[in-house]
Amino acid sequence: MARQRVIVVGGGLAGLAATMKLAELGIDVDLMSLTPVKRSHSVCAQGGINSVNDVTRQQGDTEWLHFDDTVYGGDFLQHQPPVKEMTEWGPRIIDLMDRLGVPFNRTPEGFRDQRRFGGTLFKRTAFAGATTGQQLLYSLDEQVRRWEVAGKVTKYEFWDFLAPILDPQGVCRGCVAQDLVTMEIRAFRADAVIVGSGGCGLIYGRSTMSMACTGSAASRCYRAGAKYANGEFIQVHPTAIPGADKLRLMSESARGEGGRVWVPRRPQDPRPPRQIPESERYYFLEERYPKYGNLVPRDIATREIFNVCTREGLSVEAQRLAVYLDLTHIPRQILDIKLGGILEIYEKFQGVDPREVPMKIFPAVHYSMGGLWVDYEKSGSGGLNVGSPRNQQTNIPGLYAIGECDYQYHGANRLGANSLLSCIFSGLVVAPGVANRLESLHGGAAADQPASLYELAREDHQQAHQKLLRRSGGGENPYLLHQELGHVMTKAATVVRYNNELREAYDTVCELQSRVDKCSLSDTGNWTNQNVVFTKSLRDMFPLGRVILKGALQRDECRGAHFKPDFSMPGVEGKEPAERRRLAEAWCDRFEENTRKWLKSTVATHTADGEPALGYEDVDTSLMPPRPRLYGLIGAEVIEEAWKARAANKAAAANGNASGKGSPPAGPAANAGA
Amino acid sequence: MSHNGHPHPATFEIRVLRQDAPEEPSYWERHRLDWEPDLNITSCLQRIAAHPETTAGKPVAPVAYECNCLEEVCGSCTMLINGRTRQACSALVDKLLEDNSTEIELRPMSKFPVIRDLLVNRRRLFRALEKVKAWIPVDGYYDLGPGPRQSPEEQQQEYPLSQCMSCGCCLEACPQYTRLEVTHREGETEEALAGRERALYDQGFLGAHAISQVILFNTHPTGRLNADERTDVLMEEGGLQVCGNAQNCVAVCPKNIPLTTSIGRAGRATTLRAIKKWFDR
């Protein structure tokens, strides 16, 4: 049989992990990326990577608790077997990265140091300075370079993935891609195509994501028939530095060390902030949440900052949305010791010293929990059957998705420091499955497919490309359309969502989409034409934008990052114990009803007229039954009491039926996850 | 005009050295932009792309350039800004206008072949990482337990070296790092061109970034097991001996990597290696 090959699209953590592991398994890989792989977006991750470790284990931590924190943090929207497998691999993945030379911070005795992150009580997070993502990416990049020298990996850097190539039976047999320098369009044969192209933040205009995170590769798979799941779940980080070109992250530790969030009571007060007296400042988080103050949970901080600027019109600037994050009341030397690194980032990009002038910050789109729908094969112990060709495979046979562009690991909300783990894990776990697929390929290898399959696909894209270059007179400007798209998406589908606004945004996005076909190019040449490449990626943002908006519109509930005030469940306010208990029971009834109705993955399929067809799939919660997230809710104690009683009754009933699953019991319902 | 009490011009000009393709002549072009708060060079290039016309009102193609993270950690957007090699994302317009309030000059890096406008071919930089074997040659990716224990001091020595983002600033500033360019032959495939390119690069100077990577991997307890292989590369053509000790590299490194310290350590390592080889003859 002819030699088999695999194409990996995207050279971030997931793509590089997959490439390295496939090469070790003896498989030749073509690695394709918009940018030299060492420059991928994974470099932006700062905080760290989670796993159980020797210390936390002795404090009572287990892989099971990491699993529990992850599904609880994700509001139970993720299938549990892949998450269980991921958390079990966690310690081994950190060990592997350690062996590859990642300079993890060390304890005095020479062990890896760990810090604590949100959503857990354990110090589970290994880190390498403030650039953990960069350090992890570099070690994988180095290993892949080693395989490149050995001849197992061929890199196609500055190449744009245009589409998967499907045979008449609908099996993926390769892809079409374009060289961003010479503009050559080429068809590649492959026995499997693995897409690890990252998130889709650019659909929102500016976000914390890198310029390559257009979502175009995922969108092109979706248009070719791959399903896209849970698109409406987009994580927004409360504090980012608004820039003219992108939104840069400002760590939560600024508030942790005493930073105060405020706006002038007079809208757009023109005075320099430090000249505005205390009495004319509105410390809205402290006033509205006297108990938590500036350290309210992330989602609440995000919503309040957003509302104060948009609905209440109190943004500190007229042209731009921002609030003050003020550290100027803290002595300089203390700031330098505790927050030196992150203050330098602000200073570098804003040219202003945050020790002297309050920072201007605003929430920013940060992570796509949703992504290409992928399959898995569950093992007898509730994890994955490693080596199954189904793991990470989309509904198109032979087309796989890994990393941020799959939907599998974070449910409705991602915990900090879990993304680096999910990216490396999905990259490593896809490899043995793909290897087995290659062993037993039905219908022969890609090398045996007729040349016409590839030539026709290439020709189609070549013609579309030429047509785009030759199109004249439309008059639409792709960069301005992108700004409009970002504006509409950010306004309607980020922090607080209302159905009338989502409906309106959907119509606007459809209208913008019809205009994208009238874009006039300012560059019609055929050499390193970034104008045409951008226009293509813009065109492909619309299908996913519509998936996000329609998914958000139809999901009439609040779950994780998806918040609709019209469907929120207020806490329990009664005074009488009996009444409170009755209200708590009613609350639990409503929660259970909502779970039955909405604990489902949204699955979008592209249709011929461009309208996403949405379906809903049950979520595998066989390992850990869903329970409410009560953090910060009024009356949380009494709801928790009522919920625990119910859970105990159910467990007793289940034991009566002798159908125990052998899993450890659930943790407390209201642990401090945010 | 002023913003937050700071004076600024209403508009300013960006003067770009453009080139349509390799082997084409370069030419200057001016673009006038409205001043806005918080502009960096990347956002200027984005604005030029949205309204690509010269100051004189002539419609042109957008300026080609490379960028990705915009946080100065990916190394993509290196160029010459007012003559200085640096990243476009962290080059703030207000700071640049303090030096010259009417105009900002952009040029492509001069040590790498221009592909188009500000976009250059930096494959040579990555080729040097291949040549010095800048990786830990682990046995494989199956579970073999944790890596070697390391002191915090050792980690703190490695970490700065490991922050090298392959941006090329040290190479641009180095007098010994001269431009090497292969021109495309009629009918030649991209792969064949890349092969000729590699052969040429292997004769040229490795550069400070690659020398520093040798020190990084030779310091690591596992990497140290193959230290001689990497040190030997430093003693080949284009190796450490080419360094003229100008110390420009360390002055321009945006990540403040102690490149000259690495070069000093590499000097000691190659000397010891040469003596050992002489005795082993």
Describe what you observe in this structure.
The complex is a heterodimer of chains A (674) and B (281). Chain A has 674 residues and is α+β, with helices and mostly antiparallel strands. Chain A folds into two domains: 1-233 and 369-669, FAD/NAD(P)-binding domain; 237-363, Flavocytochrome C3, Chain A, domain 1, CATH 3.90.700.10. Helices cover 38% and strands 15% of the residues of chain A. A six-stranded antiparallel β-sheet of chain A has the order 13-12-17-16-14-15. Chain B folds into two domains: 2-116, Beta-grasp domain (Ubiquitin-like (UB roll)); 122-279, Fumarate Reductase Iron-sulfur Protein, Chain B, domain 2, CATH 1.10.1060. Chain B is built from ten helices and nine strands. By secondary structure, chain B is α+β, with helices and mostly antiparallel strands. In chain B, 45% of the residues are buried. In chain B, 35% of the residues lie in helices and 14% in strands. At the A-B interface, helix 1, helix 4, helix 5, helix 10 and helix 15 of A face helix 1, helix 3 and helix 4 of B.
Q: Which of globular, elongated, flat, extended, rod-shaped describes the shape of chain B?
A: globular
| Number of helical elements of chain A | 17
Number of strands of chain A: 21
Pick out the low-confidence regions of chain B: none
The assembly state of the depicted protein chains is heterodimer
Structural class of chain A: alpha+beta
| Structural class assignment of chain B | alpha+beta
Total count of domains of chain A = 2
- Amino-to-carboxy terminus distance of chain A: 53 Å
Please state roughly what percent of the residues of chain B sit in beta strands, choosing from under 5%, 5-15%, 15-25%, 25-35%, 35-45% or over 45%: 5-15%
How many whole angstroms does the radius of gyration of chain A measure? Answer: 25 Å
Instruction: Strand order, main sheet of chain B: write it out.
Output: 4-3-7-5-6
Major beta-sheet overview of chain B: 5 strands, mixed
What is the level-2 CATH architecture name of the largest domain in chain B? Orthogonal Bundle
CATH topology of the largest domain in chain B: Fumarate Reductase Iron-sulfur Protein, Chain B, domain 2
> Can you tell me the CATH class of the largest domain in chain A?
Alpha Beta
Round the mean pLDDT of chain A to the nearest integer and report it: 93
